[in-house]
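Hey, can you fold this one?
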Amino acid sequence: MGVTNTVVERELDIDLVLSPEHSVAVPARLTYRTTDPYAVHVAFHIHSPNPVHWTFARELMVEGVFRPCGHGDVRIWPTRVDGRGVICLALTSPDGEALLQAPLDAVYTWLERTLLAVAPGTEAARLGIDEGLAALLAPTPADDLWLRDPWPSDESGCQDAGE
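Sure. Predicted structure:
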């Protein structure tokens, strides 16, 4: 039975926070692929010639809609801004840092769709690792050649010259 590839996408405007008083709306796309079940992909400036792509753990995004999480390059936390729920993404790269705010409801709804596509804890089955390892390690007729002792014991009774 073949595994189908499902893609769950959502386009939305995410605010790039420039200062506490100023932000700029950035067109973005959230993407989840069942062929890459542990990851979420976010593309920023999607209508420009050079969109910016980030990939990180879906589990991080799921936790981030409820409580602060992450460290290093990606940190996520929920908060309220002007009375509306938002999810903040702090992204760090060698090229700089960005603080982004996305509508919490939109991200939460998209995440629910990803969880329906691949339930938490079932991601590994999607990858086919066990089947791939079984096929890789399955014996082949040529294995007999490699498994034989290359220096079979000599039963001829010959002695080494040094004895």
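Residues 104-117 form the longest helix (14 residues). Let me know if you want another pass with a different chain boundary.
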